[in-house]
Amino acid sequence: MEWGQIILLSIWLLLMVDVCRTAGMEPSLKIMSRRKVLVISLDGFGHHYLDKYPWRYLATNLYSAGSYPRKFRNQFVTKTFPNHFSVATGLYEEVHGVIGNNIYDSSLNKTFGMDDKELFMQNPLVSPVWTLNEEHGGHSGCIMWPGCGVAYRGKNVTFLSPFHQHALFNESIDKSIEWFTNERTPANLIFLYHEEPDHVGHIYGPNSSQVEEELRKIDEGIGYLYQMLTVHKLRDTVDVIVMSDHGMSAVKEENVIFLDDIVDSSLYHISGTSPLLNVWTTFVTDTHGNHGYPVDIPNMEPIFVAAGPSFKRGFKAPDFSNIDTYMLLCHLLNLAPGPNNGTADNISSILVEPISSTLIRPLSVTLGENLS
Ligand SMILES: *[C@@H]1O[C@H](CO)[C@@H](O)[C@H](O)[C@H]1NC(C)=O
Ligand SMILES: *[C@@H]1O[C@H](CO)[C@@H](O)[C@H](O)[C@H]1NC(C)=O
Ligand SMILES: *[C@@H]1O[C@H](CO)[C@@H](O)[C@H](O)[C@H]1NC(C)=O
Ligand SMILES: *[C@@H]1O[C@H](CO)[C@@H](O)[C@H](O)[C@H]1NC(C)=O
Ligand SMILES: *[C@@H]1O[C@H](CO)[C@@H](O)[C@H](O)[C@H]1NC(C)=O
Ligand SMILES: *[C@@H]1O[C@H](CO)[C@@H](O)[C@H](O)[C@H]1NC(C)=O
């Protein structure tokens, strides 16, 4: 063999080693070096709650250090499952079909409740971002977020923590950190649902001391999250989005109408409770809370704030909608978005590097990128 051939062969061998290393590598490893996103939803956190508590950690770690819109729009009906599924899919409620926490389908004469997978599988077009992420070699984690316990296109999320009542915010944060730092299949996208302050807001009303106490716990939880992100050296890689699905409106006991007093209950179907058709139990406090009202009622306005390496600091953006979050997440994770009703028009302004149409590119480009 001549020297020239030997040198060529050596170069070829070196190249092969590199190709094999890349080919044999778990796709997750490549994505691990990239961005990670944590999406936290605080159920029933009305925008008006921002004035209700002297925020410490939410203010410093998120609002001052990140971006938020002048107004964050949610979808009608302003209920929990419909809005959470709109965030994950970028679709209007009437398009994904989850138009209530429970729905009655008159054509099937069937009621779908929160535990029924069929509730989320009404439209085969739905393409939740956690599924897109799995399909492209990422690992999604899901803590109690409505709809993520279902396999879409035959794919489950890698990490799942199903709903349980009174889950501690702290514990959900610990779980998220554990998944982000998992050695074998590190999560690059986590959806974390927290049931407060919705739960106490319903029972005691939005102006109650009980809601204020939950807000205090949430603020401490945010402090704990940033402490943990620092300990695990994740501050520079994790983008954090904190949002809510809807607000909370006070409902006086004297305004509650008992339907049974007016209509024979055998005459109608009930599926879930909504402000338009409410069933009430007798209770000790005289004010409760509810949501589900139209989106232009100020008490229904949710919150959105995003902080991390991808986002501008202390930036107030023009209005955007919760379905636009889908476009944002796809961009952050370099995923080609599925069919959706969102737009990147305004939400793009919160990014340090705004979305250009050429940036939403096929993932193969990402996978070929260098690890270092
Ligand atoms: C709908 O289902 C219920 C049982 O769940 C049954 O009693 C009722 O007759 C059904 N109605 C129709 C129109 O099929
Ligand atoms: C998804 O997870 C469920 C358990 O939650 C399991 O029964 C099912 O087989 C899984 N599906 C796939 C496609 O992995
Ligand atoms: C709740 O507090 C707000 C001011 O923070 C006040 O405008 C509203 O009337 C109060 N609602 C009730 C039902 O007490
Ligand atoms: C969990 O949160 C509570 C406040 O909600 C706090 O008192 C407690 O110390 C936290 N636990 C941990 C392990 O951080
Ligand atoms: C963008 O922001 C402007 C100003 O806040 C608002 O009028 C417009 O409706 C917003 N567009 C979208 C798509 O949200
Ligand atoms: C929302 O998006 C879906 C999927 O692309 C589409 O079928 C539907 O027509 C859109 N709805 C509206 C009102 O634009």
From TrEMBL:
Origin, by domain of life? Answer: Eukaryota
Q: What's a Gene Ontology MF term here?
A: hydrolase activity
Q: Name one Pfam family in it.
A: Phosphodiest
Q: Which key words are in the record?
A: Signal
UniProt KW Acetylation keyword: no
* Signal peptide span: 1-22
Q: Does the keyword Signal apply?
A: yes
What InterPro entries does the database record attribute to this sequence?
Alkaline_phosphatase_core_sf (IPR017850), Phosphodiest/P_Trfase (IPR002591)
Instruction: List the PANTHER family hit by this protein, alphabetically.
Output: BIS(5'-ADENOSYL)-TRIPHOSPHATASE, ECTONUCLEOTIDE PYROPHOSPHATASE/PHOSPHODIESTERASE
Q: What's the protein called, per UniProt?
A: Ectonucleotide pyrophosphatase/phosphodiesterase family member 5
Which organism's genome codes for this protein? Cherax quadricarinatus (Australian red claw crayfish)
Taxonomy of the source species: Eukaryota, Metazoa, Ecdysozoa, Arthropoda, Crustacea
